[in-house]
């Protein structure tokens, strides 16, 4: 029989790494072709005029930062994030705690809360129009109590309709993530704490909350990313120029794209990406520090 050369651990690890990169290559090429290279082109365009291609330095950034529509859109987007994400984290966590305490009925509640994720956006928009239109079902219900009708989608209340839409759509997914984190905590920790005389609140404070730190980080990041998808509902309900309370950055980018203000859109996209990346890096750094502690 021919002599079979035995592979060293270093050679074996090298072969494993090569195979891993070969499997990753299609995804990496796709990300490079459809995300990285186009974004690098956006960065380049942010320093040039759209017509003529003349280099203008930071002029486009100055134009964006002094634009009132950008201020309004950035404020509304920030307000939406600061309102929705804490509410979603809190509500989904409370519901997850309640579901965990149920035995047979828990699976039914999971299905109920996950159902909104299976409903197409167009159907959700139709549902909201039926509910929140000036002649919709909600105003018909309030009319029974002799309350004047409210145009929910064309006023300050439009912001709260958008918040409700985001919470209703995403709470089920976050509940599943919370339940995964709660079920991942070892029961032995609670048993040892009870032997030492710890009550329910002490177990929750000193065991449950610390053990859920990785879950909080994951849910927070995913909720942050999903919050930008609510633009679809706002756009389909209210169009290009909705009420000022729900005029988001995505509306601004879309309108600049339609009017061919590519240089302003590119500069605003770079600024937005810079803020989002910085925020995520800071959150990740703090999460890693907490994990080390």
Automatic annotation (TrEMBL):
Coiled coil: none annotated. GO terms for cellular component: plasma membrane. The keyword Transmembrane helix applies. It is a multi-pass membrane protein. The keyword Membrane applies. InterPro entries: MetI-like (IPR000515), MetI-like_sf (IPR035906), UgpAE/MalFG_permease (IPR050809). Its main location: membrane. The chain crosses the membrane at residues 21-40, 80-99, 111-132, 152-168, 175-193, 265-283. It holds the Pfam family BPD_transp_1. It is found in: Cell membrane. Keywords: Cell membrane, Membrane, Transmembrane, Transmembrane helix, Transport. Residues 74-283 form the ABC transmembrane type-1 domain. One of its GO terms (biological process) is transmembrane transport. Belongs to the binding-protein-dependent transport system permease family. PANTHER family: BLL4140 PROTEIN. This is Sugar ABC transporter permease. It comes from Diplocloster agilis.
